[in-house]
Structure formats: C-alpha cells, structure tokens
Amino acid sequence: GKYVEMRFDPTTGRKMTDTGTAFATDFRARIAEIDAAIAADDGYEPLLVDLLRHIEAHPEGRTEFVDVFLSILGTPGHEPIDAPWEVLSFCMHALRWPEVKEAAEAALRERVRANDWRAVNIFQDYVNAFEDDWTTAIVFAHLRKASAPLGTRRLDHDHALERSANRGHGAPTPGTDETGDDH
Question: Rg of the chain over CA atoms, in angstroms?
C-alpha cells in the first residue's frame, strides 16, 4: 500500500511529501544497512550491488526510488534523509536517471550559492557520478570490472595483464593501460 504524509519544510514553508511504499521503505532499510556496514568498516560494496540489482529488478518502483534519491539530495519538497554518499553515486553511475541528475545539479548550485563549501565536493561527486569518466568509480570493485555499465572499465593492473594475455599480446607496455593509452 501507499500512504502520503504531508509535512512542511521549516526553511521554505513549502509542503513536503513523504511517500511511503514498500519500495521506498525497503530502499530506506537497505540504506540503513549500508550505513551500518560502512560505520563498522564491514565490506559494504556487496550491499550497494544488491541495492542496485534490486532497483534494476523493479522498474515499477522507479517513481518511489527517485523520491528516495531526491530525499538523499535534500531536494525541496522531499523529506530529507541521511545516507552515505556512496548510495547515490554508486547507483546513479549505473542508472543515469536524468531527473536525479537534474536534482543533483540543482543541489550543487544551491550549495555553491550558499557558500556551503564542505558540501560542495560531495555534491560535485554526485554530479560527476553520471559520467563515464567518473574518477571516484575506482573505489568500487564492481565498477572496475569489464562488465560495468556504460563505458566504465576495470583499471587494475592484474586485469590489464589478464586481458593482454588472453589476446595473445603479452603484458601491456609499461606506462599504458590495457587499451594502450598512456596513464
């Protein structure tokens, strides 16, 4: 079932909608689990992968998932929720949902306008996560794999050697990656 609870944003006075659905409730529970794993320094990436797979397996829940991502961003009109930065960045690098990107860009502009420089780097990373060349992707083993979505590639040296050996060309030239590009 679905419920809608009306609240008011104390800073703007605008109505905020907290949409509760099974998808949103489950998503928030998964975020709490990821947050606990990060706090315990206990391998959280498999939880991010599970969350991403869950979202991808339930396209009918997209509206609710988007609402949670917008809540993570603190988008006006959405009940703000705390979540590790990795949740939004990791998922959006794979999903690339335009409505979340637009909200991330707006949130970044607002942080810059407000001179909230402690938050600017995080929100800049949220925006950058939508790009193929998102540099923070190297933090996540899942995104370094050759099968990662939308042009991301695995950057570790062992994988480069493995690919070169499988092609029969031997090891890559020192100073280049598996594509032969300088790095």
Answer: 19
What are the structure tokens assigned to 164, written together?
């070169």
Task: Yes or no: say if 95 and 55 are a contact pair by the CB < 8 Å rule.
Answer: yes
| pLDDT per residue as tens digits for the range 31-74 | 888 988 888 877 899 999 999 999 999 999 999 999 999 999 99
pTM of the model: 0.66
**Domain locations in the chain?**
3-152, 154-183
92: nearest Cα among 127, 47, 144, 62: 127
The H or E element that residue 102 is part of is helix 98-113
Residues paired with residue 3 on neighbouring β-strands, in sequence order: 20
Q: How many other C-beta atoms can be found within 10 angstroms of the C-beta atom of residue 19?
A: 17
- Tokens linked to 11: 């800073």
Show the beta-strand stretches assigned E in the chain.
3-8, 15-20
Question: Encoding tokens for residue 90?
Answer: 């990791």
Q: Name the residue among 96, 104, 84, 87 with its Cα closest to residue 49.
A: 87
- Spatial separation of the C-alpha atoms in residues 180 and 38, rounded to whole Å: 36
Cβ atoms of 89 and 70 closer than 8 Å: no
Contacts (Cβ under 8 Å, ≥6 apart) of 73? 88, 100, 103, 104, 107, 123, 126
